[in-house]
Write a structure and sequence with these properties.
The chain has ten helices and 14 strands. The protein is α/β, with parallel strands linked by helices. It has two domains: 148 residues, HAD superfamily/HAD-like (Rossmann fold, 3-Layer(aba) Sandwich); 113 residues, 2-Layer Sandwich (Hypothetical Protein, Haloacid Dehalogenase-like Hydrolase, Chain: A, domain 2). Helix 9 links the parallel strand 13 and strand 14. Helix 2 runs parallel beside helix 10.
């Protein structure tokens, strides 16, 4: 069995964070042709599910850069590579020292998503909070209510580049942590950073799915540093033209831009759809 795996933001999605009509029909063509596909994204479980709902993603999904595997057929959640509150303490302290509000994402055994954050938020963070609330599906709580036994999938932050870089520098020697960062979509003068347990990666999660489904070949699409782990376990890996240069360098080939349905056009040619 061959499995096609998509990153979402910057890859399958356009700049509006949507699956275009052309890409939607291409996914339908894959389904009709019996070609298996799934998603491996840095998005949280609820955020990712809202994007791909009704687009034929029936096989196990990878969320939060490998911290979560969700099987929609069985409605089962696998969460093994999470941060404990103790392990996350240095991240929270480093953020608060720089006056950056950490967003702590947790998932309970019954698949409920809780987001914990400090009470003091800047204007950008307040807007982000409203976006999270408007999406629904996540329970918003003060950081002071974070349970001692919480299972933390990731800690996200948004702030000026100097503060984010200072946080990353202060945590650089924490072996149990891995971080990904980039320019914020909300404001190009801001940066975001996302912290996970170092044992969580898209590549490791896909190896689990490969064994579960007896996958003979993995074909992966991605554009950023959090996709490199799945490129390294894939049989073929493709980067859209908008991908970071070092990601393109590790890809089997570079294809069309994500805003021009590059992945969909490649799939139609590859599989004669």
């Amino acid at each position: 069995m061959e499995l096609v795996v998509f990153d979402l933001d910057g890859t399958l999605l356009n700049d509006a964070s949507q699956i275009s009509a052309f890409t939607r029909e291409t996914l339908n063509c894959l389904t009709r042709s019996g070609i298996a596909y799934t998603v491996a994204t840095g998005r949280t479980l609820h955020s990712g599910q809202q994007i791909i709902a009704d687009h034929g993603f029936v096989l196990p999904h990878v969320y939060t850069n490998g911290a979560i595997i969700w099987d929609p057929r069985l409605e089962s959640l696998s969460l093994s590579n999470y941060l404990t509150v103790s392990e996350a303490t240095h991240v929270l302290r480093a953020a608060l020292r720089e006056d950056i509000s950490p967003w702590v994402n947790t998932v309970t055994e019954d698949k409920q998503h809780f987001v914990f954050h400090p009470s003091s938020l800047n204007s950008v963070e307040k807007k982000l909070l409203e976006v999270v609330r408007s999406r629904g599906g996540a329970h918003i709580r003060p950081l002071t209510e974070l349970p001692a036994d919480a299972r933390i999938t990731n800690i996200s932050m948004l702030g000026d580049a100097e503060s984010i870089d200072a946080i990353r520098a202060s945590l650089a020697n924490e072996d149990h942590l891995i971080s990904y960062a980039g320019v914020a979509m909300e404001n190009k003068h801001l940066k975001w950073v996302d912290y996970h347990h170092s044992s969580a990666s898209k590549g490791d999660a896909l190896n689990v799915i490969r064994q579960q489904l007896n996958i003979s070949s993995l074909i992966c699409f991605g554009d950023s540093d959090n996709d490199l782990s799945m490129f390294r376990v894939a049989d073929e890996s493709y980067a859209p033209d908008n991908a970071k240069d070092f990601v393109k360098a590790e890809a089997t080939a570079v294809i069309g831009h994500h805003n021009e349905d590059g992945i969909a056009h490649y799939l139609r040619e590859r599989f004669n759809l």
